[in-house]
Design a protein that fits this description.
mainly alpha, 8 helices, 72% helix, single chain
């Protein structure tokens, strides 16, 4: 697993192939009538899988600019394919692309985002702050899935486990100093709690 997040040489051609496969699989998954509120639908409606995909690309880049460009390229290709695969089968047909603009905005943000997140590799205070943003996003998704899991167990148990597992894995893998690990966990917990409180107001 550690090699997957920093031990691979991923070429631009492989990024394109990865994007096409990820987009096509996601589109096909969304066509399958899975039971509502299950983990199997989440790749098409939640962020955790895409955050993990982005981290794989970023952590295997040699330079921050490369991380930004490759992450942007991945999302630029994969997201339209998600919708394109569904066009022949969805009752909305081409109108399904009305959901794409929000993902296009997120795609644009991956260009500077990939550049910034690459600096997690340095394992300093800046790394702590940057990784805390990533882990907060994952933890927030995890809390959302956990609430569903508690109410309708065992639905969302896979996604809940993936989100919180990814938080622990990223911290233990990318942050080597014990003090910095504690800081990331603390910032993640505090920010997640704050976002949860704000969502209830």
């Amino acid at each position: 697993m550690k090699k997957l997040f920093g031990g691979l040489k991923i070429t631009y051609i492989q990024i394109v192939i990865f994007a096409v496969i990820a987009g096509a699989v996601t589109g096909l998954v969304l066509l399958v009538p899975f039971p509502e509120n299950t983990s199997f639908q989440n790749i098409g409606i939640c962020f955790e899988a895409w955050i993990i995909f982005a981290m794989i690309i970023i952590m295997n880049a040699e330079k921050p600019a490369e991380a930004g460009v490759k992450t942007f390229l991945f999302f630029l290709i994969s997201q339209p394919i998600v919708y394109l695969v569904q066009v022949p089968f969805c009752w909305l047909h081409w109108q399904i692309f009305s959901y794409y603009p929000q993902w296009f905005v997120l795609t644009l943000l991956t260009l500077p985002g990939g550049w910034v997140v690459w600096h997690v590799k340095k394992d300093n205070m800046l790394s702590v702050f940057i990784l805390s943003i990533v882990t907060t996003l994952l933890s927030t998704e995890g809390v959302f899935h956990l609430s569903t899991c508690i109410q309708k167990f065992p639905r969302q148990i896979i996604s809940t486990t993936v989100c919180f597992g990814a938080v622990v894995f990223f911290v233990q893998t990318f942050i080597r100093k014990p003090r910095n690990r504690v800081l990331v966990y603390g910032l993640t917990a505090a920010c997640t709690l704050l976002l949860w409180i704000l969502s209830k107001v």
